[in-house]
Amino acid sequence: MSRSVPLDRAGILDAAVIPYADARGLLRTGDLLFCSGSEPLSRIIQTATRSPYSHVALVVRMLAIDRLLLLEAEWPYGVRVVPLSSYVKDWNGCGMRYPGHLLVARHRALDGDDETALPMFLSELVDNLGRRYSLRRALRIGLREIVALAGLRFRELRLKKATVCSEYIYHAYSRLGIHLPWNRKGYILPMDIARQPDISLVCRVL
């Protein structure tokens, strides 16, 4: 029986933990890595968005070289590709694992061996590789989240290409005809993706 992605810290801590070496064989192209960070910037993002998640990235499996890669839009690097293993042992070259919890989830439409998924996701990467992360857009989203607490709303943000992590996922999934709805405030956050009923938890990676 599939389990929904946890939407609070208690649920994250309750999720089954699997060592990365064992989890490698479970992961598929199109899986999502949800990050619940413990660093100050991650905490600010979580507080502003009222979410346990500060980042989301896309997993691709390269069978020819037996590698799992992450496609992501990450501050301050922009759109990039990194080994998934770097998150569990050498995050951003710091010599340590990612400071926080890592959860893998899967969309129901990708619950199988879809040979079209990999080239589509790689096309999205190549078309946007090196595109700068938009700190300005991230701050505008954070401001909208804070103002929403007072019951006020700004006009919707215009759709742009791969400027923050959750929008990168939105565009990558769109290549396969998978629609991830934006929230009523006019943008999409990692939490909005985690809430999707078609996305279920695979495991928490240690």
What key phrases describe this protein's structure?
single chain; 206 residues; 23% strand
Helix content: 25-40%
Order of helices and strands: EHEHEHEEEHEHHHHE
Distance between the termini: 22 Å
Sum up the overall morphology in one term: globular
Number of strands: 8
Unreliable residue runs: none
- Number of alpha- plus pi-helical segments: 8
Q: In this structure, how is the largest beta sheet organized?
A: 8 strands, mixed
Radius of gyration: 16 Å
Average pLDDT level: 87
User: How much beta, percentage-wise?
Assistant: 15-25%
Derived structural class:
alpha+beta
Could you walk me through the main structural features you see in this protein, from its secondary elements to its overall organization?
There is one protein chain. Strand 5 and strand 6 form a beta hairpin. The protein is globular. Strands 1, 2, 3, 4, 5, 6, 7 and 8 form an eight-stranded mixed beta sheet that branches. With 206 residues, the protein is of the alpha+beta class. 32% of the residues lie in helices and 23% in strands.
Give the topology, please:
Layout: E1 3-4, H1 9-14, E2 17-18, H2 20-23, E3 32-37, H3 40-49, E4 55-62, E5 67-74, E6 78-83, H4 86-89, E7 100-107, H5 117-128, H6 135-148, H7 165-174, H8 190-194, E8 199-205
Parallel strand pairs: 2-8
Antiparallel strand pairs: 1-8, 3-4, 3-7, 4-5, 5-6, 7-8
